[in-house]
Amino acid sequence: MKFGLCLAAVLAALLSSVDAQDEAVRDFTLDAYTSVTSITDLTPDLDYSVSINSFDGSEESIPIFGQLTIQSGNSSDRVRRPTDTIKCSVSAITDLVFLVDGSWSVGRENFKHIRSFIASLAGAFDIGEDKTRVAVVQYSTDTRTEFPLTRYTRRGDLLQAINSLPYKGGNTMTGDAIDYLLQNIFTEAGGSRKSFPKVAMIITDGKSQDPVEEHARRLRNIGVEIFVLGIKGADEDELREIASTPHSKHMYNVPNFDKIQEVQKKIIREVCSGVDEQLSSLVSGEELVEPASNLQVTEIASKSMRVTWDPSLGDVTGYKLTLNPMLPGMKRQELYTGPTHTSINVRDLSPETVYEIALYALKGLTPSEPIMATERTQPVKVTTECSLGVDVQADVVLLVDGSYSIGLQNFAKVRAFLEVLVNSFDIGPSKVQISLVQYSRDPHTEFALNTHHDINAVVRAVRTFPYRGGSTNTGKAMKYVKDKIFVASRGARQNVPRVMVLITDGKSSDSFKDAATNLRNIDVEIFAVGVKDAVRSELEAIANPPADNHVFEVEDFDAFQRISKELTQSICLRIEQELLNIKKRSLLPPTDLQFSEITSRSFRTSWTPPAARVMSYLVRYRKAEDITGDYISIALPSDATSVVLQHLSPLTAYEVNVFAQYDKGDSFPLSGEETTLEVIRYRLSYVPLSGTGEILEAQTIEDETSIVLQELFPITTYRVSVFAEYSTGMGSEMQIDGTTKEVLGAPRDLRVFDETISTMKLAWQPARGNVLQYRIVYKPVEGGDRKEISVKGDTTQAVLKNLQPATEYDLFVSAHYTSGVGDPLIGTGTTLEELGSPRDLTTRDVTDTSFLVSWVPAPGNVRQYRIKWKSLYAEEAGESTIPGDNTAMVLDGLTPETRYQVSVSAVYGHGEGQPLNGEETTDISAAAKAIVVSEETERTMKVTWQPAPGNVLNYRVTYKPKLGGRQLAAKVPGGNTSTVLRRLTALTTYDITVLPVYRSGEGKAREGEGTTCMTSFRVTWDHAPGDVKGYKVQFHPVGEDIDLGELLVGPYDNTVVLEELRAGTKYTVSVFGMFDGGESLPLAGEERTTLSDGPDPTPYSPSDVTCKTKAQADIVLLLDGSWSIGRLNFKTIRTFISRMVEVFDIGPDKVQVGLALNYVLQNNFKENVGMRRNSRKIGVLVTDGKSQDDVHEKAQNLRNENIELYAVGVKNAEENELRSIASDPDDIHMYNVADFSFLLDIVDNLTNNLCNSVKGPGM
């Protein structure tokens, strides 16, 4: 913002900003030459007050002031002045609930417009626990409370919450959502207060997928005023079902979300006004009036409808019915009835118009909640044929100009036009009669009204009447029609509409005005049709008004067709209207209108009933000068002969109309005027009803209608008489009784004691009289929320709780009586300073010798903070203090990789608060983090690390192939700093992690990597052609003939593992094919081993598994001893067999085990090799590759002999072949592992299954 400084010698300026809602004051000191500054971190939609002072030393200028507000949803550089915002009155206090449509159709982008609208409406009120409370509920498929009425008591907090409302998404279930408000929000548990105004602002953009009307009615019935804002796809009928009445104030609909601002100000004004009206009703103590029910609209016509209802179940004095047209400029109707009248036929409505109908039950002047309906009047039925009904009658005269100016040819066109005209009527002696008169110099009757009695005769006469010629004496012709045609002898009838249609082509040659007037005076409706040279002013003087539907002009005789339809419609409407008037004239009106009991605000209207039987009376009145104003109507029963018109304006003339209502319609009104009186003053006399006091008198100043009667006795009922004084004398007496209240006292001698940081006790001397309760109001002197508590009237002590520490409070203690509240006893009290604790201890910037500690400050006036730290691993400890305005400190000089306990205490002037504790571990040093890998072999490596500090329970060592694979783990005792990793894969790099484990958790990780080496390798070749008998494999270090190794393998082998080689040595390998005639030339190659010799295989360790059974079993182990296994892996197989066999009780009468190596398995299940006839027979096959001969048939033969087969595959074994060997099921009899080292992982499971096989089924 910009501002100017007006002092020439200013040293500095002070800028202060504060929100009107008790936000903290912020001060900024600027240098003497500053004229522009920025204020940041402001809350949207809060009004900020800004003041600027300039000062020189200790002298300070008078401040200049300004205000600013940041709009929600906009960038901070867009500032609106508070004058753009709308504020409700300070007294406007309500429970305001927003029900927000968060369905998918709204969209996340449009939801920001809804947030802005909510913020603007909520921001118009003063927010607080004892002021306006606000809740927001969002709904879609289901409904949830975003925040309840009790959540926010500060305007800034509320607006921030509104601006961060989340978008929900889902379907539109408005009915369920309204019911949710009723059950969960507008309840005492939900924070809604009794005897406070209640407002619901419903915002929706679509039609609800469930019914809403019943839920909305129930919400209105508990006193909630409902405003509804529909957007885009909202259904207007549904919005009417939801909103309170009148809908013009409570229902809004905009075509899109960005149009909300166009109605925003009007909505806020109406909501504020509605809250004020609710408050006025609550303050006046008006009781709720039970509404009527079952509003029905029937007998709907173009200008009338009947409204009926079921009476109110309560005690009412009458009903008020309003009909508001939905089109602007149309007349509104307001009607009143008595308490037993439940039906009104409302007349004088506008055709084809939608009316909003509201019915209120009245108790005195207090209305109920209205019951509503909407209905449209029928359009006026206009036809070109006057067959309006079987009883339609009219006498129609066609007066046709036959002068020479027309000519014979054009006269034929006149005949054709007349034929069209007469065909519009239903001709007959009791229906429409037509006469034709032709005139020029003299008139001539072509046929009279009673000449023709059907349409065919009339048409023939029209077609054949002659053209006579002559001058144009229109006046003479009209006199002739009056004297010779509209007479009984020529067929004219009484009480039948009379119409004359004049057709002329020129100016009249004689005087015509009197003749036309005389016709109109006998109720003849005149229509004039001018052709060619006819004079319009002459036509208008002849025809009835208005001219726009009584005067017609055509440019020539060929243009008759253009006006025929409009002319016929006008004639038919006139006939219909005149029939109604004739009917009305037959309905006798009341007589002898009298006015009496005239006052400044009312008078009585009386009448004499007609002789006929009346159904009811309708009295309508309005100010006489307001000739276009709306009437107020009162419906009265048939036996009524008077009514008092009330709530009138003084010294004002009123037009009064009394209609007698019959089943056929209303009579013409009995009309009159009366003027209310001007009151000079009101005179009052009042006396105690007990008769113990004297009669007192008082008078008002001029025509004021209220006065305070003084010097009365307390708790005494007075009879008050009021007389209006007019210039003509005194009015009639009005009486009312009123009772004075008791004397309202005040407590005395307020005492404050036993103060703590959040409480204080109060005591006082009691007030006089019968005190119901004492109410204690308290509020911080420096500003803050006002709170209150109550205690019983016989109590003179109270405890104030949940106070702010070190805070001075204003205290008000007032006595409450049945009749009111006495003057408060005022004092102050101050709470003690709080010994608080800081909060939310956090650490960061951790190194191996330091870390930073920070916290949220403790409450109150903290002098300094005391920081202590202690190692959890050793005796190391420290302590330091820092000033109280600091909230962070770096602890340094610490031991690496050590867990410290840290405590922070707030130090006050009179003590120290409870410490805030936390823990942090220093980082590991770079040297301690590294691990050392040594003694790498093909399957193992040694890992060594620096010891972790403290009492390490153990180290968890994890290692995993760097390029992916299964992670392995080992646990090492806490006193060790090295271990050997086993079961590794040759020539593989491993990621290795060492984690110290403490009772309190894990320490800092040590990390590194290591790679296994190779002291063996595999040799593979393709088979030699021919009848090879075997192969010889020779190998030795390159360049050395010593350490020459040689292996012989069979003719079907093509691979061998060379083991126990020298590490880090390149070997030459030669493979010879062996034939009967000698050996082939060698196939040669080279390979290098890695640096370290291999370790011994895993040593044998006894198993914990045992198989206890008395069953006999013969187990044969068939082991693959092919070269592809290698000696080292074969050692592992030996250990595997040892572990498997040791679980059995071996003996000639128990379990026997045989071993078959490179031998046919069938030969081992013979009695000559020790097999027993009745023992269970089990075979276990261990192999590392695919068989080079067929195994399926041989295995099936063994199974057919009840031999149970197990198949164990290692490394390159083929799983399908294993499955074809093993007995069923596979999950028990077949195993396949990735490497020989994993055999020991399955041995226990395999021996358990073997044991079960030995025991047999059911064992």
TrEMBL record:
The keyword NADP does not apply. It comes from the Eukaryota. Residues 291-380, 589-680, 746-835, 837-927, 1002-1093 form the Fibronectin type-III domain. InterPro entries: ECM_Assembly_Org (IPR050525), FN3_dom (IPR003961), FN3_sf (IPR036116), Ig-like_fold (IPR013783), VWF_A (IPR002035), vWFA_dom_sf (IPR036465). Keywords: Cell adhesion, Collagen, Disulfide bond, Extracellular matrix, Glycoprotein, Repeat, Secreted, Signal. GO terms for biological process: cell adhesion; endodermal cell differentiation. Residues 1-20 form the signal peptide. The keyword Transmembrane does not apply. It is found in: Secreted, Extracellular space, Extracellular matrix. GO terms for cellular component: collagen trimer; extracellular space. Its main location: secreted. Residues 1084-1105 are annotated as: Disordered. Residues 95-267, 395-571, 1114-1152, 1153-1246 form the VWFA domain. It holds the Pfam family fn3. Belongs to the fibril-associated collagens with interrupted helices (FACIT) family. This is (spotted green pufferfish) hypothetical protein. It comes from Tetraodon nigroviridis.
